[in-house]
Amino acid sequence: xxxxxxxxxxxxxxxxxxxxxxxxxxxxxxxxxxxxxxxxxxxxxxxxxxxxxxxxxxxxxxxxxxxxxxxxxxxxxxxxxxxxxxxxxxxxxxxxxxxxxxxxxxxxxxxxxxxxxxxxxxxxxxxxxxxxxxxxxxxxxxxxxxxxxxxxxxxxxxxxxxxxxxxxxxxxxxxxxxxxxxxxxxxxxxxxxxxxxxxxxxxxxxxxxxxxxxxxxxxxxxxxxxxxxxxxxxxxxxxxxxxxxxxxxxxxxxxxxxxxxxxxxxxxxxxxxxxxxxxxxxxxxxxxxxxxxxxxxxxxxxxxxxxxxxxxxxxxxxxxxxxxxxxxxxxxxxxxxxxxxxxxxxxxxxxxxxxxxxxxxxxxxxxxxxxxxxxxxxxxxxxxxxxxxxxxxxxxxxxxxxxxxxxxxxxxxxxxxxxxxxxxxxxxxxxxxxxxxxxxxxxxxxxxxxxxxxxxxxxxxxxxxxxxxxxxxxxxxxxxxxxxxxxxxxxxxxxxxxxxxxxxxxxxxxxxxxxxxxxxxxxxxxxx
Amino acid sequence: xxxxxxxxxxxxxxxxxxxxxxxxxxxxxxxxxxxxxxxxxxxxxxxxxxxxxxxxxxxxxxxxxxxxxxxxxxxxxxxxxxxxxxxxxxxxxxxxxxxxxxxxxxxxxxxxxxxxxxxxxxxxxxxxxxxxxxxxxxxxxxxxxxxxxxxxxxxxxxxxxxxxxxxxxxxxxxxxxxxxxxxxxxxxxxxxxxxxxxxxxxxxxxxxxxxxxxxxxxxxxxxxxxxxxxxxxxxxxxxxxxxxxxxxxxxxxxxxxxxxxxxxxxxxxxxxxxxxxxxxxxxxxxxxxxxxxxxxxxxxxxxxxxxx
Lengths: 528, 308
Description:
The complex is a heterodimer of chains A (about 525) and B (about 300). Chain A has two domains: about 1-300, no CATH class; about 330-505, Alpha-Beta Plaits (2-Layer Sandwich). Helix content of chain A is about 45%, strand content about 10%. Chain A is built from 22 helices and twelve strands. Chain A has helices spanning about 5-25, 30-40, 45-55, 60-70, 75-80, 80-100, 115-130, 135-140, 140-170, 185-205, 215-225, 245-250, 270-275, 295-300, 305-330, 355-360, 365-370, 405-410, 420-425, 440-445, 450-455, 485-490, and strands at about 230-235, 255, 260, 280-285, 330-335, 340, 375-380, 390-395, 425-435, 460-465, 470-475, 495-505. Chain A has a two-stranded antiparallel sheet. In chain A, strands 2-3 form a two-stranded antiparallel sheet. The termini of chain A are far apart. Residues about 290-305 and about 325-335 of chain A have low confidence and may be disordered. Chain B has helices at about 5-20, 25-30, 50-60, 95-110, 125-130, 135-140, 170-175, 195-200, 205-210, 215-225, 265-275, 285-290; strands at about 45-50, 75-80, 115, 145, 155, 165-170, 180, 185-190, 190-195, 230-240, 250-260, 305. In chain B, helix 4 links the parallel strand 2 and strand 3 (about 115). In chain B, helix 3 (about 50-60) crosses helix 4, helix 4 runs parallel beside helix 6 (about 135-140) and helix 10 packs across helix 12. The longest helix of chain B is centred in the N-terminal third of the chain and has 20 residues, at about 5-20. The relative contact order of chain B is 0.17. Chains A and B meet through helix 9 and helix 21 of A and helix 5, strand 4, helix 9, helix 10 and strand 11 of B.
């Protein structure tokens, strides 16, 4: 039975990995929308944040993970966690690839735990999170990192291949494959994703699940919980022949066969050990929670150190949080005839406002990946240094489609709350501001009106000025800040109309609708 | 498609035309000779009172039937207005029934391929599907082609243009044998009305250039490069205000009308009158008339007026 666990784990993890990847890579966008809620239900950090937001049964995925961990250890890490899967793929490939040449190096060896590192990272992450900054949480959260890797590194490749196919087919007059535009234009987000990918691949290549047991805060938290797991993997001293095979396959390097010791807090429940053990020398054992166990005493020796370190970390993280607040209000000036002052980034409809949004967003980029108009882009410093990669609306790239609510559908943390189309159409995320001196109608004295054309509520209206010319005029009450006017505005290098963000979204007045009183008599003659 | 292919196609089309001529169909094809009352080929057909597809079938006969424009094995490109993510009832886009019917008739006339595209303003996938035009085209056997990628556009110089000297134009416009323009008549915030000439803005890549460089002049300049072979103006449901996108169905009035002409300026002038405005007030129509692209003086034209 125990030897079958590995197969179950592998199958489950592949299913999770495939579906999670589809969410980010689906270029049609259809699957992302319908699957995201189900697939990401068990993702630890998104589910936790969603629960804090809505406290509903729909968001109890993380509780299930906690309970599962308390029951039998970190099953999350080897089944649900996509970054864990990525590391497993690296480890697996390495084994297959290097099988013949350097067999010896493929073995894992027991390594002492880096408890100091992982618990301090966990603490700082938790403290900064409690103080309202998610930067550490989301830059270390395995799911969000996986999302960023797929969105910024893998999806562009898929789009590129799609476009090559499209171009080739086009030469044969076949237009069945449409070329697509790349989602992201932000270089920093790409560099960040590349760095994380590099670290993760390097670590897993060298030391298996080293990332999970040093840097990953979810791994550290679940590791801490698994100290209290009811069922733990232990060495069965009656049957173990101390052959040491299990140690060589342990990706977490947490089996010490010399001392018959397993550091269960680092075990990611991959079950490789059960699979290779020739004698049933390992078993799951019911372990009532002991507070004065042998190992417990051993660990207490570290406590004073850890405590003092924690203190320093608390003060450190307080400073960090302080900086983050100071950084949040970065002013973006644009050189222009009339300076454009856009003090805050624009957040998508459903995100309530900047504070609400940044309090729950893990920058996993799923909304960016799914946004059909690409108006959602990863930020650089718009939210401050500690808000990097959190999505913002970039009206240079696109504008928010009036009918579209996909980002709110796919958001796993509820940072973008579910919103229906009717509500979205009345959610004012910002207000259009008109800069007369940049406008073509005033500077060139020729007709334009691209802004008004694109405006879905006609908050931007053309009014007569002189010589048969019409110029835009903004009615802020019915403007929803979608950015269509700014996107369409043809002036260069600067826009003559732009959206100024609402720090907290407000309700817009509905657009004016009047039925036209015009009777058409089909039997009447033509007017020509 | 590439240039070589283009030449090949052009050569093929030339050969086809030559063959057709040598079989003696030329007089009927090329002449403006007006025949007896019932078989007469009119300069412009206006029709009202029916469904869009039914009106097309009737009105197209008055301008010589679809066979006058589409020959065997020709490649046809159709440019409806699919600019906005709006359902058909809002009349921001061309009526899908009309587009579907035209595609069907082109195939019946022997077209090899019928392509339909627009360089949309809203997200193209949402526009194509929510306008129901994608479905209508596919049901009629046509091929709907995206216009969202600049790789489809090739730069051409427009020697006759005053403001618009060059533009990147969708390759289907450059390479197809027959170009059919199917705009929808509607109010427009920038140019008062969007009809047939304005619809051609959807065949180029950079529309912002037009807006920056005297919009009305640019609209009139483009047809000096390529005039559609046929203009079919959909005025079934007409957006009377808040155009070109519209806010709701309340912006529209059902006119159940359609105008068909080979003269793009005349078609625009007639549609303007139908809308209740004066062509003299629409700058680009006036400019186009002065430039000799067509005539806005409807009195000089033979017009077939049909009521169903």
